[in-house]
Amino acid sequence: MHEELKKLIPEVKENEILAPYTTFKIGGPARYFFVAHTSDDVVKAVQAAKEYEIPFFVLGGASNILVSDKGFDGLVIVNKIQGFTAYAEGNRIFVTVGAGESWDETVARCVSQNWSGIECLSGIPGTVGATPVQNIGAYGQSVDAVIKEVRAIDSRTWTEAIFDREACQFGYRTSMFKKNSGHFIITQVTFALTPGGRPTLSYHDLKNYFTERPAPTLLEIRQAVIEIRARKGYVIMPGYESYQTAGSFFMNPIITQEQFQKLKPLIKECPDPWYWPLPDERVKVSAACLLQSAGFHKGYRKGNTGISLKHSLSLVNFGGASAQEVMAFAEEIKKRVQEKFGIALEEEVELVGF
Fold it and tell me: What does UniProt list as catalytic (predicted)?
């Protein structure tokens, strides 16, 4: 198999350990491993995987995944597609970015040009290509609000497809790409930003930060977001203390009014706001609050894994943790939250090789 695959993608490696490529620093080997720098590279890799019936997985910044201890028995394609172009049309700046570009460097570049729309998404690790998949959001902004189109390779036809915002089917921390995992490999994303636009200042942490400065600049918002994220150990940059983690392990659950009325009297120790009413009368609840109220406080430790000292929604590898340890701990958390509050937590982290 190896020699035949080598003929199609000569640069392929074998048995590459994936742990160093992930922010969790956990994970076994990829049977095959290939770095794609162009869309043609992606097509070549997918064609090879299809021809030899090898499962494949696309790796970006690997900041939101947990790889199993046995690794991935297939082809891991590392997306390193670069590029950054921008043009003005009407009252918008349209910025097209390669999927392999650093997300935070892209935010910094746009903020430096005074283009608003993604400043509150500063400090989030990973690549541009992962942002529409997860529909990332933080501090009052969500990436789906500014995505104009996404270009991707359809792994079933080996052709390029273009998706406008509606076709992406965005939802809370999800999208059509996440629901159809493996079908599409994102190569470019185009964002519609506002030149000279006012920064978003709606999230309570940011409002509190700027109590005495009601009109912060985009750069000040970016710096504040990074500082707030750093307090939670979520900033993976030189000069910032961070943990071996994939960030928020669970999504904030969305529950019915009936569930919320049963839950409210049970929550005693969470600071406000720990819930957010939605337009459809459902309620989004802080998963961090549920963990704390179930007894999983910051710094809680179970062997080599546990809860971050800075943020109770972040499961961390304190050193030497296995994927099996992390998953066993996550299941313990889910079970206790379900028993105590009747709410089922869902992983935000993508599980690979399980």
Answer: 173, 248, 348
Choosing from 31, 92, 151, 173, the catalytic residue is 173
Residue whose token pair is 């939802």: 171
Judge contact between 251 and 173, C-beta under 8 A.
yes
pTM of the predicted structure, to 2 decimals: 0.82
- Helix crossing, 218-231 with 103-112: angle to 10°? 150
Residues 78-124 pLDDT 10s: 999 999 999 999 999 999 999 999 999 999 999 999 999 999 999 99
Give the DSSP letter of residue 240: S
Q: Which run of H or of E encompasses 275? A: strand 275-277
SS3 state of residue 10? coil
Active site residue 229: no
Active site residue 348: yes
- Give dist(CA 147, CA 160) in Å, integer: 18
Q: List strand residue ranges (DSSP E) for 84-156, in order.
A: 84-89, 92-98, 115-116, 137-138, 141-142, 147-154
* Distance separating alpha carbons of residues 116 and 35, to the nearest angstrom: 32
Check the CA dihedral 64-68-71-72 and report its sign. negative
pLDDT at 165 over 60: yes
Task: Give catalytic status of residue 241 as yes or no.
Answer: no
Q: Is the dihedral of CA 206, 207, 210, 214 positive or negative?
A: positive
Distance CA 190, CA 319 (A): 38
Q: Which of 16, 101, 119, 348 is catalytic?
A: 348
Query: What amino acid occupies position 268?
Result: K
Cα–Cα dist 47/50, whole Å: 5
Q: Are strands 301-302 and 275-277 parallel, antiparallel or unpaired?
A: unpaired
Q: What is the mean pLDDT of residues 195-204?
A: 82
Q: Active-site residue among 63, 68, 155, 248?
A: 248
Domains of the chain, first to last: 2-79 (3.30.43.10), 84-231 (3.30.465.10), 244-352 (3.90.78.10)
pLDDT, averaged across the chain: 91
C-alpha separations of 134 from 66, 178, 319 in Å: 15, 7, 27
Nearest alpha-carbon partner for 98 in 65, 135, 120, 131: 131
